[in-house]
């Protein structure tokens, strides 16, 4: 059998792995090239590590595939008849955010410059080894994964323990875990409701973790984005769609393709935006702001609210049709006061987790300390419990004195600031800076204006001597 003249077999010990790397496992690729042999060569090579690889000989065929499927990466011949570069630039202007790698048989530097100006991830000259193309495609997938992560710190509620972080053994939490395990692999929309701080995003992450979906988990707080920007955040926009839209941008639905989109505080979404979201849920396509083309998306929606949506519907503040579309599976996250038996396991979990993050020794809390935590009503739920544990570690105080923002429960209020010694103030400040530096001792020492050796000596002394505030 004749060997493919375009293919160079990988040498023994090649870095090309038959296993799909995590960054590429859920990605889809569209190859646009007029040469049948080149299309076949690239498709066979990329199929080893990417979930979907389709090919097109021309622009019309590629446009038909784009209407029917979502692609993360386009590999196109820049000299394609009909204008490969011009067509990609037109896609960008329409709001299509897929990554692009150009290939070319022409070594003209102007071609490479034009490709980079069009926003291409890479430019590869023909002929090339399949390892070169795989490496470029994997870099694109990894960069895309990182960019998905850029959205998360701005929108996530905060990190809690990780069924994926749902710590608790009470009957309500056991039932919640059972239902999550059952509905996780299903494509159905899930509506989570409960008070603020009960762990709705944790439950959403647990559902996504059991979904088997190859895409990522993307979260947005609908109440934290202005109504004017929310549509662009979700669906993206084309270049020139509004003042300041100097380039096209992909929305969160595009970033979440193949995965899950968590719409937190869905009750805060404006009515006009609710109608557009309903249309997306029904048609499985989005239209970027200012664009004309409908882009197919495969996204599982998980919504959450601390409001009673049925009441919001009755008051005319939430669309009834969207409510029923979201309320396929409804899960309630119980407040912490209804699951007091979980307070101590959660406190112990946070104690170990935060001690490691802050670089401080685990304090020796006694039964009295835990009893005070169990008797508290926790209006801020799990989030408040985590904050109390962190405050206790930072200030070197007993947890009972950190309840209610520092006032000891079941006792007359006292001016605790006047009770702190200079050593306790120094310790609290140093631990706070260490927390801001995310446990990086070198960074914390630089911020404090002391040497790392001095910082380590103080931390070691505190670990050995206990709480200076109580001495």
Helix/strand/pairing class, anyone? alpha/beta
Question: Regarding CATH, which class of the largest domain?
Answer: Alpha Beta
- Number of H/I helices: 18
Measured as a percent range, the helix fraction is 40-55%
Count of structural domains: 3
Morphology call: globular
- How many extended strands? 12
Q: Largest sheet, if any?
A: 5 strands, parallel
Distance between the termini: 84 Å
Overall residue-averaged pLDDT value: 78
Structure in words:
The protein has 471 residues and is an alpha/beta fold. The protein is built from 18 helices and 12 strands. The chain has 3 domains: 123 residues, Rossmann fold (3-Layer(aba) Sandwich); 179 residues, 3-Layer(aba) Sandwich (Rossmann fold), CATH 3.40.50.300; 116 residues, no CATH class. The strands form 3 sheets. It has a 5-stranded parallel β-sheet with strand order 2-1-3-4-5, sandwiched between helices. The chain has a 5-stranded parallel β-sheet with strand order 7-8-11-6-12. The chain has a two-stranded antiparallel sheet with strand order 9-10. Strand 9 and strand 10 form a beta hairpin. Helix 1 crosses helix 5, helix 13 crosses helix 15 and helix 17 crosses helix 18. It is globular and about 80 Å long.
């Amino acid at each position: 059998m004749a060997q493919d003249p375009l293919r160079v077999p990988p040498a023994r010990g090649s870095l090309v792995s038959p296993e799909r790397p995590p960054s590429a496992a859920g990605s889809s690729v569209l190859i646009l090239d007029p040469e049948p042999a080149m299309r076949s060569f690239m498709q066979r090579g990329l199929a080893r590590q990417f979930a979907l690889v389709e090919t097109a000989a021309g622009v019309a065929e590629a446009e038909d595939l784009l209407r029917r499927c979502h692609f993360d990466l386009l590999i196109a011949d820049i000299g394609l008849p009909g204008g490969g570069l011009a067509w990609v630039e037109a896609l960008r202007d329409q709001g299509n955010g897929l990554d692009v790698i150009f290939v070319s048989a022409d070594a003209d530097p102007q071609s490479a410059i034009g490709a980079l100006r069009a926003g291409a991830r890479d430019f590869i000259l023909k002929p090339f080894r399949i390892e070169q193309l795989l490496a470029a495609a994997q870099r694109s997938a990894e960069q895309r994964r990182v960019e998905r992560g850029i959205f998360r710190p701005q929108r996530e509620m905060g990190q809690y323990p990780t069924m994926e972080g749902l710590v608790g053994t009470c009957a309500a939490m056991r039932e919640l875990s059972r239902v999550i395990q059952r509905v996780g692999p299903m494509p159905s929309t899930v509506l989570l409701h409960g008070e603020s701080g009960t762990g709705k995003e944790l439950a959403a992450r647990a559902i996504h973790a059991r979904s088997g979906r190859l895409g990522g988990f993307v979260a947005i707080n609908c109440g934290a984005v202005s109504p004017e920007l929310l549509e662009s955040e979700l669906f993206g926009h084309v270049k020139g769609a509004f003042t300041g839209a100097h380039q096209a941008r992909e929305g969160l639905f595009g970033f979440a393709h193949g995965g899950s989109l968590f719409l937190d505080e869905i009750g805060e979404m404006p009515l006009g935006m609710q109608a557009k979201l309903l249309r997306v849920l029904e048609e499985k396509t989005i239209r970027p702001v200012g664009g004309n083309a409908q882009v197919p998306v495969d996204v599982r929606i998980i919504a959450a609210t601390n409001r009673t949506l049925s009441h919001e519907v009755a008051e005319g503040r939430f669309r009834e049709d969207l409510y029923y579309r979201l309320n396929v599976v409804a899960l309630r996250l119980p407040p912490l006061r209804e699951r007091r038996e979980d307070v101590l396991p959660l406190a112990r979990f946070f104690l170990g987790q935060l001690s490691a993050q802050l670089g401080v020794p685990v304090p020796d809390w006694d039964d009295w300390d835990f009893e005070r935590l169990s008797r508290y009503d926790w209006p801020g739920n799990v989030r408040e419990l985590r904050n109390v544990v962190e405050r206790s570690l930072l200030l070197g105080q007993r947890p009972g004195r950190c309840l209610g923002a520092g006032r000891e429960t079941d006792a007359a209020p006292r001016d605790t600031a006047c009770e702190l010694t200079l050593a306790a103030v120094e310790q609290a400040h140093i631990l706070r800076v260490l927390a801001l530096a995310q446990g990086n001792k070198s960074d914390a020492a630089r911020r404090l204006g002391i040497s790392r050796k001095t910082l380590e000596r103080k931390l070691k002394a505190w670990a050995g001597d206990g709480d200076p505030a109580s001495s």
